[in-house]
């Protein structure tokens, strides 16, 4: 019996059982999972891109802002009426401004009752004259509603002056409060008329 034990016999392992120098079999499943995940991600990106392109092609280009149609040119009859009403309009605006200012001065105590009454009488005469001038105009059919609204505005100013005149008689400021919404509504009507027949030229008081 050979009493010399080889190194292999001593450790109880075969001689050819040295560790292999190749890649570890544990890493192969990890690399495979990463490759599958990357492939799925690429496919998802492609699907999303294709869906977005398809939706854009179906909808077409984005629509721009909708612009209002161009304003039609006024007819000869409309121009004649607009010029005639403009000659009245200047006096109406001036008197409406004066009426507002004298009302504010009186309420603040910067005008006496006699002066207040005199100014209001002048405003009443001016509006009465303007009403007669407007009634004398003959608007074309296309401006009948504009004509009626302007006439209503002048009449509202007349009612406002009459209400303020009561304050000059009894010195009660609640008449001024009642007159204010009448003149405001009249001013709004003038603004609408101005936009209809004097675009870009009318500046409300």
Helix count equals 6
Mean pLDDT reading:
78
Beta-strand content bin: under 5%
- What's the CATH architecture name of the domain at 76-197? Up-down Bundle
Named CATH topology of the domain at 76-197: Four Helix Bundle (Hemerythrin (Met), subunit A)
CATH class of the domain at 76-197: Mainly Alpha
Order of helices and strands: HHHHHH
Main structural class: mainly alpha
For the termini, the CA-CA separation is 132 Å
Question: What are the main properties of this structure?
Answer:
205 residues; mainly alpha; Four Helix Bundle (Hemerythrin (Met), subunit A); 6 helices; disordered N terminus
Task: Write the SSE topology.
Layout: H1 7-11, H2 27-59, H3 76-107, H4 113-136, H5 144-170, H6 174-197
Tell me what the structure shows.
The chain is mainly α. It has helices at residues 7-11, 27-59, 76-107, 113-136, 144-170, 174-197. Helix content is 71%, strand content 0%. The model is unreliable at 1-20 (pLDDT under 50). It is flat. It has a domain at 76-197: Four Helix Bundle (Hemerythrin (Met), subunit A) (Up-down Bundle), CATH 1.20.120. The chain has 6 helices and no strands.
């Amino acid at each position: 019996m050979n009493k010399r034990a080889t190194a292999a016999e001593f450790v109880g392992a075969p001689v050819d059982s040295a560790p292999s120098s190749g890649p570890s079999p544990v890493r192969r499943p990890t690399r495979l999972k990463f490759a599958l995940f990357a492939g799925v991600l690429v496919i998802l990106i492609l699907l999303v891109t294709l869906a977005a392109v398809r939706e854009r092609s179906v909808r077409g280009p984005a629509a721009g802002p909708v612009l209002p149609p161009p304003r039609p040119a006024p007819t000869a009859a409309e121009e004649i009426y607009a010029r005639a009403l403009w000659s009245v309009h200047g006096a109406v605006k001036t008197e409406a401004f004066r009426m507002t200012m004298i009302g504010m001065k009186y309420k603040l105590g910067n005008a006496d009752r006699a002066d207040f009454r005199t100014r209001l009488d002048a405003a009443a005469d001016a509006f009465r004259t303007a009403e007669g001038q407007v009634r004398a105009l003959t608007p074309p059919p296309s401006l009948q509603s504009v004509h009626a609204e302007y006439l209503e505005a002048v009449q509202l100013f007349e009612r406002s002056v009459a209400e303020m005149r009561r304050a000059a008689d009894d010195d009660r400021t609640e008449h001024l409060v009642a007159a204010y919404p009448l003149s405001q509504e009249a001013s709004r009507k003038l603004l609408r008329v101005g936009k209809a027949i004097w675009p870009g030229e009318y500046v409300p008081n």
